[in-house]
Amino acid sequence: MVGSRLRGGVGFPKFVVPTAPASEHNPSRPVTTQAPDSIDSIMAEKRALKILFKTYWSSKGWKSAGNHNWVPQTPPNELAYAIGAGVMFPTRTPSHDESIRRIENLRRDIAPRDVGAAFIANLFSGSIALRSALASYGVALHMPVHSFITSGLGLRCHICGSYDTNGERDLNVLSFERHKWGGVRHADPTYIAFDLERFSAESDHQPSAENRRDFCALLQLIGAMPAGARLADLVTAIKPLVPGGTAQRRCVIATMGFAGILRIPGRPGFFREFTPVNEREETPWYKDDWEYPIRWWRGGHGIDHEAVSFWFGHFA
Ligand SMILES: [Zn+2]
Q1: If 0-12 CB within 10 Å is exposed, 13-18 middle and 19+ buried, where does residue 97 land?
Q2: Residue 282 CA to ligand 1 centre (angstroms)
Q3: pLDDT at residue 16 above 60?
């Protein structure tokens, strides 16, 4: 591990371990505790998600697979419907610096406990998309407020690793990935800003007592994984607890890695400090597309209880 690490954003509160139960919520966010969403809004979201998924995905996978000239096609009336439902979005051209500024504001406005609560409430059922904010906020936690600077990485920012294309970004593919897997590009400032903005706009359900029990069981299972266990073993081990497919379970594990919940000695990742892109080391073993820092995880190192308290409170 070499080089200086970066800690803290300008004006961002320092890390504090909370002592109260996870019961406080940001009053600016719509929070749903008892009353379910109306049938109409559920049906509208379902229809909008169908339009979104149909744009990018078929029974054979990505519609863009093998076609570099592919562009998403959504019938205008369907696109308008999905935009109205808050599932698809007009094209935007967010610059690197704009995304960083938005992240600075969002992490000031969103309570980490709300992100943790939404993760637990939606881990065993509910919205896969609402799990994503824990990963995005995890990466953003100590991300320095910075301008786009390149240094030996070609066109990439030497701090966050993003490209400053100043071109159009397809927010709908980000929305698709968020709803299908719980996000993919959690270290990309454009995605982080998009994800946290959606999180702020969407109501969520607070976790039930059963959700919390199940999450405790998940933490105990992870903590009890035998020394040397690999990520593939962990993906298999959590299958009885976390429904969905392998890709969703991989995303859940990566999310807990971004948030610092799984201990990875020697590689702090993002929970206590921000690791710049050129210090996110690759593993010497087979590269299998796991993100940093979770790619370094091995069984036997347990759970970081400080991180658990930070995101979820003292219940685990
Ligand atoms: Zn950057």
Answers
A1: middle
A2: 20
A3: no
pLDDT in tens, 238-264: 999 999 999 999 999 999 999 999 999
* Count of beta carbons in the 10 Å neighbourhood of residue 122: 22
CA of 187 to the centre of ligand 1 (A): 10
Mean pLDDT for the stretch of residues 50-66: 95
Contact 181, 195 (CB under 8 A): no
Higher-pLDDT residue of 13 and 242 is: 242
**Domain chopping of the chain, boundaries:** 37-56+72-88, 209-312
User: Which residues have CB atoms below 5 A from the ion given as ligand 1?
Assistant: 157, 159-160
Give the pairing of strands 57-58 and 61-62: antiparallel
The Cβ-side half-sphere exposure at 127, using a 13 Å CA radius, reads 28
Tell me the CA–centroid distance for residue 143 and ligand 1, in Å. Answer: 9
Q: How far does the centroid of ligand 1 lie from the alpha carbon of residue 284, in Å? A: 26
Quote the ligand 1 centre to 276 CA distance (angstroms). 9
57, 88, 135, 181 from 92: Cα distances, Å: 22, 12, 23, 23
| Separation of CA 145 and ligand 1 centre (Å) | 8
> How far, in Å, from the CA of 8 to the mean position of ligand 1?
14
Using the mean position of ligand 1's atoms as its centre, give its distance from the Cα of residue 257 in Å: 21
Ligand 1 center to residue 161 CA distance, Å? Answer: 6
DSSP string of 132-173, one letter each residue: HHHHHHHHHTTPPP----BSSSTTBBTTT--B---S-B-HHH
Answer for the pair 178, 230: CB distance below 8 angstroms, yes or no.
no
pTM of the model: 0.87
Once rounded to an integer, what is the mean pLDDT over residues 275-295? 87
Structure confidence by residue, pLDDT tens digits, 142-195: 999 999 888 765 788 999 999 876 677 889 999 999 999 999 999 999 999 999
Find the 280 Cα to ligand 1 centroid distance in Å.
14
Nearest to 195 by CA among 99, 268, 260, 261: 99
Average pLDDT along the chain? 86
